[in-house]
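Usage

Read records sequentially. Each one opens with the input sequence:
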Amino acid sequence: MRFAILLLAALTLLAACTSDEPPEPTPSPAPTLDVTATAEPTPSPTAAVPPTETPSPEQQPIISPALRSPDGALIAYVEFQFVRCPPGCSVVFEDRQGTELLRIPFTDPALSRIADAWAAYTIDAWLDDSSGVVLGGSCECDGAGEHPVVIVKPDGGVIDSGVSALLGSSGAHVSPNGRYLLSRDRIDSPWGPGVGCAISGSAKLIELLTGDVISEVPDVGLALVDWQWLDGSNLAYALRPFPNPDDGTCDQQQFEWRQLPVEWHLLTIP
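and closes with the structure output:
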């Protein structure tokens, strides 16, 4: 009897192992996603920035080259605006640290001869005793080609002796010590008006503080074509024969004429 029971159990177990149907899998629990809601960031307020206005060239102040006084104590320059002169134009004095000491506007009555110019001014020179600066305007305020020259002092004073310079050539018109001015005399060109055709044969040496003519370059039938200040009292100048109008017009011969040799002379101020 016991044997029969054991045999039946063994047959049952064998049948279970040889079945063709796989056992059904036990389903696993689905994973739970832990989702945390993210809040949208609040945009920070943006300040409204007005557009930056770029000043026009007429509104921007232009500063001339600054010159230091001979004693080293002061600096002088000209500040100007093209369309606001005279109210936008001034001569400025500073100390050696760059602190502004005095500003003299071109509206000053003493600067009336240059007040109406479009302002392309520079400080030409300091007086050798540091008592003032020579101011030569680019305006032709005293006639065609004639430029007024005045002296402006650090105490606000202005010396205007009615001096004008007929500018031309590349030479400096004001002496290095600021005392004298070379002003060419005007002549009529033998060819009529034209660039490079007006040639001077003589010039005056003027004392700026008084306006007196102290010397002259005589007209000896030669053209004054160049000059160089050697120091405050010696002026070298070059002469060349006038061109012959019969040799052609100004445009036809001025290049060859300017290549001709010159004769240098020395003028010493007593």
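Summary fields computed downstream for this record:
- The chain is about 10% helix and 30% strand.
- The two ends are 164 Å apart (CA to CA).
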